[in-house]
Design brief:
The complex is a heterodimer of chains A (255) and B (167). Chain A is an alpha+beta fold and 255 residues long. The termini of chain A are far apart. In chain A, strand 3 and strand 4 form a beta hairpin. Chain B starts with a helix and ends with a helix. At the A-B interface, helix 1, helix 3, helix 4, helix 5 and helix 6 of A face helix 1, helix 2, helix 4, helix 5 and helix 7 of B.
């Protein structure tokens, strides 16, 4: 196909972000002289956005216990295979089943929650965040208000990561306001890191902790507690890379 | 992630898709539950390293198709039964979302699946083709028809409302 004939499926591809990067400028140029098709693509894009507005709420809704129970019923072989996964999962289940979390220390659940939130949201292609980085002031104000503390996304350009934006998640029921913020970053290769922030670190014996590292499946997490805030930086990157970025995050939060 | 927690981390997306697909939240969770149970019973057949999400969505598709084949029409929830949707939506938004729900219900099941896998779940066309077990060309033609029809339905609803106002 030449530049002056654009196929219908290429218009869909443009709308869905599935058009080859080399072809994209040609199709976009073609659309400038074809207003009817250009309008059509805009309508489709609006449809996609509407679908997300209508249904993304389901992603952050607490999971019903029956669905988690459904993953428990299994044959003996699966049980054996999943035995290790089970051990790692306790915290996630507690987090997902609202109100069932035992009064475990924030520290024990923080890395698992952060890894889970990372696994859920970081693969989203077009809507990884609720409020994107172009509205950073709004994002900071909104999340500060919801978490009840002053909160600002760290800038990680120096480390090679750009802020994509953030979203508000639901934490577990008891204690604190249960709100959690997630900031998402991306490097030039598209690798994503998420910074998970909770503000309900309980009455704090220590007030602050050292960095700790935890690996949840293939997701690495550096986490620490500072005053009322618990922070966790999660990503599929190497441990050394995560530590490098976590150090920068920590310094920015504690200038 | 691996094993059970890998499956658990896919549940939010399965729920999102199911809710858009069948409309009613409880029925959607029934579909998700059936999918999880089926997946676990076939867990040993899943090739480690292959795409777990695609596999789960394919299982859900098969279950959904079997449901649709039974003559009972999919029931969509009543107008006032959308408490969750309104928690973060403005009132105007709430109406737009309700219109969307109704319009989705009017699409054929085949069109709805393709539209949602691609528009909401952001599957590539090839991934959608594998999950639904139909050729790529079929995915594209269904997608094209679904988008045209959704526009007609949404425009029609807006038109219908203004006609009523004029009367």
């Amino acid at each position: 196909m030449t530049a002056n004939s654009v196929r219908d499926d290429e218009l869909h591809g443009l709308c869905d972000g599935r058009l080859a990067a080399t072809r994209r400028p040609e199709v976009e140029a073609w659309l400038t002289s074809h207003p009817h098709e250009a309008a059509q693509v805009e309508v489709w894009r609006a449809q996609n956005a509407l679908l997300h507005r209508a249904y993304d709420r389901v992603l952050i809704a607490p999971l019903p216990a029956r669905l988690l129970d459904a993953t428990k019923h299994s044959d003996r072989l699966l049980r054996m295979a999943a035995a290790l996964a089970w051990l790692a999962l306790g915290g996630i289940v507690g987090f997902l089943v609202r109100g069932e979390l035992p009064a475990a220390a924030l520290q024990a659940t923080l890395p698992r929650q952060a890894a889970l939130a990372h696994a859920v949201f970081s693969p989203e292609v077009r809507h990884p965040v609720e409020v994107d980085a172009t509205q950073e002031g709004h994002l900071a104000a909104w999340l500060s208000k919801r978490l009840g503390g002053k909160l600002k996304p760290p800038h990680l350009e120096a480390a090679g990561y750009t802020l994509l934006g953030g979203r508000l998640l639901t934490g577990e029921g008891g204690g604190g306001n249960g709100a959690v913020a997630q900031f998402m970053y991306q490097d030039a290769q598209g690798a994503r890191l998420t910074l998970y922030v909770r503000n309900d670190a309980s009455g704090s014996e220590a007030g602050a902790t050292a960095f700790r590292f935890s690996r949840e499946g293939n997701i690495g997490v550096f986490y620490w507690i500072d005053g009322p805030f618990g922070y966790a930086l999660a990503g599929n990157s190497e441990k050394a890379e995560l530590l490098r970025v976590a150090t920068i995050v920590y310094r920015q939060l504690n200038p | 992630m691996f094993g059970r927690d890998a499956i658990v981390s896919e549940i939010p997306r399965l729920r999102r898709y199911a809710q858009a697909l069948v409309g009613d939240a409880a029925r959607a969770d029934d579909l998700v539950q059936d999918t999880l149970e089926r997946a676990l019973s076939k867990w040993l057949l899943w090739r480690r390293g292959s795409d777990l999400r695609a596999w789960l969505f394919a299982i859900m598709h098969n279950l959904f198709v079997n449901q649709v084949r039974t003559p009972a029409r999919v029931e969509f929830r009543a107008d006032d039964a959308m408490p969750e949707a309104q928690t973060r939506a403005t009132q105007a938004d709430g109406l737009a979302l309700r219109d969307l729900e109704r319009a989705l219900a009017e699409l054929s099941a085949e069109q709805r699946e393709v539209l949602l896998l691609i528009g909401l779940e952001e599957f590539s066309y090839a991934e959608a083709s594998r999950a639904l077990g139909v050729p790529l060309g079929t995915v594209m033609s269904r997608l094209s028809r679904a988008r045209v029809r959704l526009k007609t339905l949404l425009d029609g609803q807006a038109g219908g409302a203004s006609v009523k106002l004029v009367k």
